[in-house]
Specification:
By secondary structure, the protein is of the alpha+beta class. The protein is built from three helices and five strands, in the order αβββααββ.
């Protein structure tokens, strides 16, 4: 498999993982309101959901194991996600008292999902 094929496979596997995670949030009653939302400053948030009165920003990571997936989240990426989350909240939050949280969703090679809620890393 050449690099272009590997890249395409990784891209589609990532999309599938995001869809699995979005479906998991929907099953527990959350409303997924945005996918792959991009802020003006380059940050991207994989999923944004409303879980009751909480605005949830979800980063999805996929790898062979949950541990390897978690290791793929860099501090640089966290900063960019944080900036994008602040921008989204400024535009779309219900008001200044809007409750928010950051979840890290890990998807392993077998498709099992582990969600770390309130992964306060910003």
């Amino acid at each position: 498999m050449n690099r272009a094929q590997q890249g395409a496979l990784a891209y589609h596997a990532g999309l599938a993982a995001e869809e699995q995670v979005a479906e998991r949030y929907r099953r527990v009653g959350a409303d997924v309101s945005a996918r792959r939302w991009r802020g003006r400053f380059g940050g991207e948030i994989d999923l944004i959901a409303r879980d009751g009165d909480v605005l949830v920003f979800v980063e999805v990571k996929r790898a062979r194991t949950h541990a390897v997936a978690a290791e793929r989240l860099s501090m640089h990426q966290l900063r960019r996600i944080g900036i994008a989350a602040e921008e989204y909240a400024a535009l779309y939050a219900a008001g200044p008292g809007q409750k928010m949280r950051f979840d890290l969703a890990l998807v392993d090679g077998a498709g099992r999902i582990e969600v770390i809620e309130n992964a306060s890393m910003f």
